């Protein structure tokens, strides 16, 4: 997830993610990040100007990773329906395999700690932008109902996020069969004609 960063930056970002999820943001201090990461405070300040700077870099790093993860192999698929299915399968896989990163994005996407510019970059550069284009194409080709594409993406994402939260809290399982049925329900919610599982 943080492979594009150097060793020090990676240690700081990974440690900050774990601390924020385990202890909450307010309890995560620079001194605690330094202690748990094994990186001196001075060295941290060489790369990050403040705790807020670390939080924003962490947010950007996770969003970028999520975008690459959700859209992997997507453009090798020709069918809009198959792209739709694969993208949402990837979202489920992301939530199940990277629970802390998933929770961080969900908890802090609207936090005042995240700069507005960072949020804009995240929406445009993350996977939501790619799916918006896919949904727009589906609307233009008469496959989806006339609704704003990004609104539909967020509508589906909201439902899936809630299911993943319940899964992470061990309230219910998410089998592959469950996931396929959920994606089918999402497709049918915006499709002009009910589709079948691809």
Automatic annotation (TrEMBL):
InterPro entries: Homeodomain-like_sf, HTH-type_Tx_Regulator, HTH_TetR, TetR-like_HI_0893_C. Residues 6-66 form the HTH tetR-type domain. Residues 29-48 bind DNA. Keywords: DNA-binding. GO terms for molecular function: DNA binding. It comes from the Bacteria. The keyword NADP does not apply. SUPFAM superfamilies: Homeodomain-like (SSF46689). PANTHER family: ACREF/ENVCD OPERON REPRESSOR-RELATED, ACREF_ENVCD OPERON REPRESSOR-RELATED. This is TetR family transcriptional regulator.
